[in-house]
Amino acid sequence: MINRIRDIRKQKGMTLAEVAAACEPPTTAQTIGRLETGMRNLSLVWMNRIASALGVDPELLVKGEEAEAPKVVARLAEGGAEALPSPRDAILPAELGAKKGATLLCLAVETPQGEYRAGDQLWLRQVPPADAAKIINRDVLVPRSGGRFAFGRLIDRQGSMVGLLPPGAGQRQIVVDKPAWLAVAEMLVRKL
Fold first, then answer.
1. Which of 54, 113, 133, 143 is the S-S candidate for 168 at Cβ 3.0 to 4.6 Å?
2. CA 157, CA 116: separation in Å to the nearest integer?
3. Are strands 62-63 and 71-77 parallel, antiparallel or unpaired?
4. Is the separation of the CB atoms in 106 and 119 below 8 Å?
């Protein structure tokens, strides 16, 4: 089993101290840190306490090793879509039922751009470039060379090239030649 407490805590924007204080009864940040890293065994009692503090179901705190979890692979910052230093597990909203065999990705919005606000998560479904014509006028994430990404409205497809219009005001069209895949936006998750 893989412990996902740290991923969930970071996704919720909570510190170790905040999770510790939210536990019933409260505990220490050091204890939460040890449970996150596996330095201390995660019992069912601790799972229930931490899950309650994080506002999630206890079974989300651990996952089987055989299951490939959706990943946060990029963030939308002031300069556009940027790769994360390393992909991290994304916590999948229960309402987003993945189509069988589809790869799900998550784009974390850090800077407001267009209709997207800081803190938003945009869930995307990977599709082959051959299906680009089916997703014209949809928001997509496209891998570029050097581990970079482009994000925007898919507005054009000519041969092996796709054209994207980024969501920020006054931005120019981005053209990507021979992308390995496209990921089309399926669901926007916005904290209230």
1. 113
2. 24
3. unpaired
4. no
Residue 176 near residue 162, CB atoms below 8 Å:
yes
Q: Indicate the pairing of strand 149-158 with strand 104-109.
A: unpaired
Kindly report the backbone phi and psi dihedral angles of residue 67, in degrees, each rounded to the nearest multiple of 5, phi listed first: -85, 125
Contact 3, 61 (CB under 8 A): yes
Residue closest to 143 by CA, chosen among 119, 120, 127, 122: 127
Burial of 126 (0-12, 13-18, 19+ CB in 10 A): middle
**What letter does residue 136 receive in the DSSP assignment?**
T
Q: Which one, of 1, 34, 7, lies nearest residue 20 by Cα?
A: 34
Respond yes or no on whether the N-terminal peptide bond of residue 25 is cis (omega within 30° of 0).
yes
pLDDT tens for the chain, 192 residues: list them.
Answer: 678 899 888 888 899 999 999 999 999 999 999 999 889 988 999 999 999 999 888 888 887 666 566 788 898 888 889 988 888 877 665 444 445 556 888 999 999 988 999 999 999 989 999 999 999 999 999 999 888 999 999 999 999 999 999 998 888 999 999 999 999 998 898 887
